[in-house]
Structure formats: C-alpha cells, structure tokens
Amino acid sequence: MTNTATAVAPANIAFIKYWGVQDAERTLPFNGSISMNLDTCLTTTTVSFDSALETDEVTIALYNQVPERAAGQPLARVVAQLERLRALAGVPTRARVASANNFPSDAGIASSAAAFAALTVAGAAALGLDLDERRLSLMTRRSGSGSACRSIPTGYVEWRVPDGPFDAAAWDEQSYAVSLAPPDHWDLADVVAVVDAGAKKIGSAENHRLAATSAYFPARLAELPARLGATRGAIARRDLELLGATIEADAVSMHVVCMTSRPPSFYWTSGTLEIIHAVRAWRDAGLQSYFTIDAGPNVHVICAAADRAEVARRLGALPGVRFTIVNRAGPGARVIPG
Ligand code: DP6
C-alpha cells in the first residue's frame, strides 16, 4: 500500500523572536513570538508511506541543486518527526520523503521552518490524520524547529505560550501558533539582504540552550509582554512606525543576549552593520523601512509593499550586499495536488 501527499509551506520572519528554550525535548520556549509568513520562500515536500520500504528514505533538493539523500542529523530529525506522526496514526509504515527548497539555503532565511511545516502537513495528510490547525502547529513545534509552528497558520502569526508558571506537560498541549491576521490585512514586504554567504554557521539549537546564561536574558523576558502587545496592536492598526520600532528593539535585544551568553555568539558582520546604518538613514530621509536580524548576518528589511522595489534597489547598491530576495506576507502551510 502507498499513501502519498504533497504540501507547501512558507519560511517566516520573526517580528518578536523565539530565543531560548525551557524544555528542549518538547521545544517549549520561554516567550511567545510573532512572525510574518513569506510568500516567495517556500519548501515543497512529498511524503509517501509505502509498506514495501524497510527504512525511511529522505531526499532534499536545495535551491538550484540536484536532490541528495539525507544522512546524519538532518535525516535523524526527519525520521523523528515521521515517528511522531506514525505514533499518532498507530501505523509502522516507513516513508519516502522528497523535499525541495525554492530559495538559497544561505540566504539567512530559516529553511528549517518551511521544511518541518511542509513535512508535518504532508506526512499527516498521507497518513489520513485529520488534524486541525492547532494540532498541526503543535506537532510541527515538536519537530525541534520551534519557529516552524508559525509557518502553519496564515499571514501574521503568533506562537503563544500559556499564562502562569512553566508546566512542561500542560504547555506541550497548549503552546502553538495562531493567525493574527491574513496576508491581505496589511501589504508589508520583507526585503532580505544577503551579505555574507561565507560566514560560519552557528546553529540556533545550541544557542537556545545558552540564552539563559546571559545576564540580560531576564531583562529581555521582562520587556517581552509589552513588546508582544505593541506588535499585536501595530498589526491590528497597520501602524508601521510602531511595528518597526518594536521589531528593531526586539532584534537588538535578542542579539545582546547572544553576545552576552556564555560562550557568546556574534552573528553580525560589517555588512550587517552597514545595512543597519543605511536603513536608519533612509528612514530619517523619509523612506519607512526597519531592520530585523535572525541567527545569522543577513538583514530582513520590513517596509510597505509599495516601497519594496526602492528598498531592494537601495540595498542592492550597498557594497556589502550580495543579493536581495523580496517577499510579501503570504499564506501558511497547505496540502497541494501532488
Ligand atoms: C532567530 O530553532 O526555530 O530565527 O534553528 O532554523 O530550527 P532553526 O530555528 P528555531 O529558532 C529560530 C530562531 C530565530 C527567531 C525566530 O524565528 O523566532
């Protein structure tokens, strides 16, 4: 017997960052986070459960490259997620997984978010599991790539944590992502400026564990309820000035935690700082654009969609920028015809 499904899922850019893990086993964060799905950076994944298979077979096609068989840690993470889905369905059947990214993996866009959202949606559909959005998001979060749970709902998305003291078992059932607004609620763009393909990759998994070693981490957590509230309000009212000031403060705060963790991580390069200064100068001169930076050197510049071509042109003219990728707000993960 063969049961097949294909899903497509977007990458997302965090306005308020997930940084720091309270329970790595269940991927439970310290704080809620808010993001926008990207409409052009997508992963497409086909999962076929086939009773003739003795092991899971996974191929990954990176942007502009031929598909390659996954091995080691990437394979282990996919198999672990298939195991979670099989346990839910109560079936032992192995699967063939073929995943393809349509954006460069060195672009500073978390490809694992799109990948684990697409894997979970395709895998659940192939097994005939009837999971609602909440359960799909929960299952995706458990993959270990926490931010992937925000790629399930549409548009502008919040990954919630329950109120009250940390309770791993309760949070495991209650920490998932919900849509705050559909993409057409607010026509924003994320112009990604890729500055440095050669920068050494620093994995965020280990750094999520190190966050709590920073003396500034408690200060960051204390600031977050107000920042999350401001971001929700800015999205509801389409207030770009408030959104921009809030996301810049949050990105800086996350990176201060990185730079003061033990051992510290420095993700920014000279190209990163060049863009931060340029964006601030453009803003002073009337072009409303704001920076945010994930766990890498590249910069995401958030602006009104109407300004995206001008922002991309200016970013492309900076000496440190290799290329740009332009995104607008997009829908969440969905099953598509195979
Ligand atoms: C800085 O553990 O979800 O992007 O390392 O790609 O699996 P991967 O991502 P994850 O950490 C995301 C960290 C972040 C902020 C964010 O997206 O919220």
Order of helices and strands: EEEEEEHEHHEHEEHHHHEEHEE
The ligands found in this model are:
ligand DP6
From the helix content, strand content and strand pairing, which structural class follows?
alpha+beta
Counted by DSSP, the helix tally is 9
Helix content: 25-40%
Which strand-content bin applies to the residues?
25-35%
What does the radius of gyration come to?
Answer: 19 Å
Q: In total, how many beta strands?
A: 14
N→C terminal distance: 17 Å
Describe the structure.
With 338 residues, the protein is α+β, with helices and mostly antiparallel strands. It is built from nine helices and 14 strands. The chain has helices spanning 72-89, 111-126, 133-141, 168-174, 204-210, 217-237, 240-259, 270-284, 308-316; strands spanning 2-16, 21-23, 28-29, 33-50, 57-61, 68-69, 95-101, 156-159, 177-181, 188-194, 289-292, 299-304, 323-328, 334-336. The strands form three sheets. Strands 1, 4, 5, 6, 7, 8, 9 and 14 form an eight-stranded mixed beta sheet that branches. It has a four-stranded antiparallel beta sheet with strand order 11-12-10-13. Helix 1 runs parallel beside helix 2 and helix 2 packs across helix 3. The longest helix has 21 residues, at 217-237. The protein is globular, with a radius of gyration of 19 Å. The protein binds ligand DP6.
